[in-house]
Amino acid sequence: MRNRIYSGWKRRISKLMIASLLILPVSVTAPLASTVKAAGNTYYVDTNGSDTNNGTSFSTPFRTIQQAANVATGGDTVYIRGGTYRETVTPVNSGTSGNPITYQNYNGETVVMSGNDLVTGWTLDSGNIYKAPMAWSLGAGNQVFVDGVMMDEARWPNQTGTMLNPTRATAGAGTDTTHVVDTSLPGGGNFWNGATIWITGGSAWIAMTSTITAYDSVSKKLTFDPLKLTNNSAYNPKSGNKYYLTGIKDALDTQNEWWYDTANSELYLWAPGGGDPSSSTVEAKSRMNAFDLSGKAYITINGIRTVASTIVMDSNTNHVVLDGMVSKYISHNKLNTAANEQTNLGINLDGSYNEIRNSELAYSSGSLVTVKGAYNNVINSYIHDGGYVPDWDGLVNLRGANSLISHNTVSDAGRVTVYFSSPMSANDIQYNNIYNAGWMTDDLGMLYGPNNDGQNTEIHHNFVHDNKATNTKPGIYLDNYTNNFIIHHNVMWNNSGLQLNIPSNYNLVYNNTAWTNATTVQAWGNIFTTDMYGDRIFNNIIKGYDPEVTAYTIHGSEVTSSPGFVNEASRDYHLLSTSPAKDAGIAIPGITDGYVGSAPDIGAYEYGGSDWTAGHNFTSPPSPTYSTPSTPNMNLVQNGGFEYGNLSSWTATDAGNAAVINDNHWVKTANAGMSRSQFFGLKLSGGVDGAEQTITGLQPNTNYVAGGWLRTPAGETAALGVKNFGGTEKSTSSSSSTWTFVKVSFKTGTTNTSATIYFKKTFPGAGEAYFDDAGLVPDSAVYQSIYEFDSFENGLDNWVTSGGTPSLSSAQTHSGSNSYIIKKTSTGLSKTLTPYTTKLSPCGSMTMLQRPTCRLLGLLMMVLPFEVLRSIPRLRQRIIPIV
């Protein structure tokens, strides 16, 4: 029996070692436009050229970039001479793989593509105010520049602040949903009629705008149309809210202000310093786009500057590279109404395999770059100063799949610096220096996403610091209904740290440091208030956990006091050699690989390990590549929340009526809706109906648990099941009209590496059944022991030997330099469980008489296979799964 036990233990260790090799991240390099190309034609563009030239030499250049874009084909290069080009370029042709079309500034000359046109013909109106004819208008998108500096639309109070910290007035008593009362308001009766009010109402989450319809100069009360969100106190204007007014001529009363007379097509301006604007270069925005690359492929744009314009792509754009760009005043709209003017602004990376790198993006009323589609990358760029009409979107607005957001500096936002929202999947947000969010709003994370399925998006190795919000200001904030994120090796300071609002599922939080001015890890929710199923939090230097996180997540192996940093005051959060975090963590494959010492360190830095930094570096540009995430306990179901909006990765079965329904569950109750979280859910109907997905890459002879949410409004029976795993098909049913979570535990066969998970309406009646949020992870009842790890680099400390001392070996190792050989007939090792594992088991809550047996069980679970324990009659009743 003893020989069989030790032989089985050796097989168990071998399986763990093999598993750890199988789950290492696999690097996938997106095939972007090649930098090696066949020789093609060369064209030249010069502001002194002519579009009647052939464009093939310095002496016969085109006048416009568009003319070159009309004739350039794959392999051609367009050299653009220095100067300002006031046009929107829409290439006629695409390049091909290995033969892109390249638009390049010639010999480092400064090329500016401007959305502005010149305004001339100034005459005096009155005082310091001049006017000039301006035949175009972009309405709420109008912008005016004097000598390259953006002017303010005529406003009150006058601007003495900055773009992101502007001068604002304060609403007083009597303010409500459609009124602002302020005793300091100037002007007589109806003075402000027709003006635009900008206000951060209610809890100041976002800014909204509306039109003033009446002004009572006696009571100092403004009346305006309803804002786009007035459904609760979080948005309704109230006393203390900040606001300003724009858009009437009578507010034009100081330098650096303008007003546009739509009726007469005239621009009024009080230029900087006063006087005739004719002595300055005055420009007004006339075009939205510098390049329109919709439907185009294999185009490279190098070293070109844009101002007051953006670059657009669509879902068919692919293999476009934007390199060495300087883009300023990318997007502007002064409104935020029900039309959602601030959504999806900035340079748009849509389609697939497109990239912006080594660039500066600055100044936008909303986002500076929006990433959609798949395999679209933002690399080594300086992205700053946006969101001065703050809505939900961040400076980086991520809505795509398999995208790499890497080595960027992202700073200074009216609200969020990096925002992510569905549909998205398996993005990689890494090595970014992110700071100064929340200049104008509250209740936000610097990296923030609500109601979102990340589908194993990784957020790792980022500096996240200095949230300027007054209230609720985490560094990384997964708001309610946000699932499937892997958050590791981030350093956070001068924010509250981590927040995982409820419900929160399959979010993995490992090896982060959140310290200076941080709070405990927070969670809040008002529906499904105990649901943090699948969340795991390990190896973090944090200030502790709030009661919800403590109660509803699996967590441990943390340092919560005196972490032993090199120099906290200088923001050096590396560990001292005496730090309690050193060699105190647990090994997590795919997260702590390559650690130094007897065990991984707790926190974002490994003492003596490979160092890392974050942010852009134009002097020595990095070349990161996208890699797919791979670590135990990540959810293995693809499109488990149906947030692709379709049955991608699923197959309809039985009646074949499976359909994905758009029914946003936000603010719905637990017994309502066709989705349990986020936007989409699965509907089965018309008798017995189903949908299934086959999941590959499982480990043989391994325990897993599938989970999902079911709702049957008419009380019919529905089920979650698993089959084709090498064992007998299993399922769990529900007939509840309230969303109900069910689980199915199963063990793969000795050679099986796949399983099929399914949702099924099993009752043949005519009613409907709804399903959502499927998951499949290793079963923690058996799998938890992987977190107890020792590489034996410090010998047999904390281990108990039996039958003699095992032999030291350096020939066969999994990591580090040492291993020990266990002889099946004469030697053995055992180890007691560490405190974090004990915390996850029920030992701490048992009586003094029960605890020795429980602790003995814990020791045996480290040595014996689970099946052996289960076969011992007196221990069978003591085995309590860890959930």
List its traits.
883 residues, 14-stranded parallel sheet, 33% strand, Pectate Lyase C-like, disordered C terminus, eleven-stranded parallel sheet, mainly beta
Q: What's the gist of this structure?
A:
The chain is mainly beta and 883 residues long. It has 5 domains: 1-25 and 796-826, no CATH class; 126-284, no CATH class; 399-628, Pectate Lyase C-like, CATH 2.160.20.10; 651-780, Jelly Rolls, CATH 2.60.120.260; 831-883, no CATH class.
Layout of helices and strands, plus pairs?
Blueprint: H1 2-22, E1 26-27, E2 42-45, H2 65-71, E3 77-80, E4 83-85, E5 101-105, E6 111-114, E7 116-118, E8 123-126, E9 129-133, E10 144-146, E11 149-150, E12 152-153, E13 155-156, E14 169-170, E15 179-181, E16 196-200, E17 208-216, E18 221-224, E19 242-246, E20 257-261, E21 266-270, E22 282-285, E23 289-292, E24 297-302, E25 305-307, E26 310-312, E27 318-323, E28 326-331, E29 347-349, E30 355-357, E31 360-364, E32 369-371, E33 377-379, E34 382-386, E35 396-398, E36 404-406, E37 409-413, E38 418-420, E39 428-430, E40 433-437, E41 447-449, E42 453-460, E43 463-467, E44 476-478, E45 483-488, E46 491-493, E47 498-500, E48 508-510, E49 513-514, E50 536-538, H3 547-552, E51 554-556, E52 565-567, E53 572-575, E54 627-628, E55 651-654, E56 659-662, E57 680-684, E58 689-696, E59 703-711, E60 718-723, E61 730-734, E62 740-747, E63 754-761, E64 769-778, H4 780-783, E65 800-802, E66 807-809, E67 819-821, E68 828-830, H5 835-840, H6 851-863, H7 866-871, H8 873-876
Parallel strand pairs: 2-3, 3-5, 4-6, 5-24, 6-25, 12-20, 23-26, 24-27, 25-28, 27-30, 28-31, 29-32, 30-33, 31-34, 32-35, 33-36, 34-37, 35-38, 36-39, 37-40, 38-41, 39-42, 40-43, 41-44, 42-45, 43-46, 44-47, 45-48, 46-49, 48-50, 50-51
Antiparallel strand pairs: 1-54, 7-22, 8-9, 9-21, 10-11, 10-22, 13-19, 14-19, 15-18, 16-17, 16-19, 17-18, 20-21, 52-53, 55-58, 56-57, 57-64, 58-63, 59-62, 59-64, 60-61, 60-63, 65-68, 66-67
